Amino acid sequence: MSKTLTGRLRDFASGCRGSMWQSRDDTISLMDEAAEEIERLTAIINRPENDDFVRGVSIEAEHQAQRWGDDHDIGKNGWDWFWTIGYLSQKATAAFEAGDYNKAKHHCVSTAALMKTMHGMVQRHEALAKSNDT
Q: Cα(59)–Cα(53) distance, rounded to whole angstroms?
């Protein structure tokens, strides 16, 4: 059975610990393959999925995380989340009323993805509050 790219990269890193360089051709081939995989995954994350809602939310949440990062969300309070979610849901409503159904679906997905991110932040704050109580 063929190893995954991640497994091969780990093996490569382990091999480099014992010697200064592995075969140059092996290195170039492995790095090219890694770059292709990164490009493939980046294309998935940056391409909106509007028809499969659950898949779209997952992809959009990852897109938002890559674009904005944790630092952007960690300092938000509940009202910051409320206003951002309201803004996005308003965009979905406006697109729906204008008959731009693809854009309306996208804004529904992006709003739900933001709710997913908020849910994760609520969990982090809850865990922090519990650890402070002990």
A: 10
What tokens does 93 get?
């409503």
How is the chain split into domains, by residue range?
A: 5-44, 51-133
Tokens of 134: 């002990």
* pLDDT by position in tens, the chain (length 134): 456 666 677 677 666 655 555 566 677 777 778 878 877 777 777 677 777 899 899 989 988 888 888 888 888 999 999 999 999 999 999 999 999 999 999 999 999 999 999 999 999 999 988 898 86
pTM value > 0.85: no
Instruction: Give me the DSSP letters along 48-65.
Output: ---SSHHHHHHHHHHHHH
Structure tokens at 76: 């938000």
Using CB atoms within 10 A of its CB, is residue 111 exposed (0-12), middle (13-18) or buried (19+)? buried
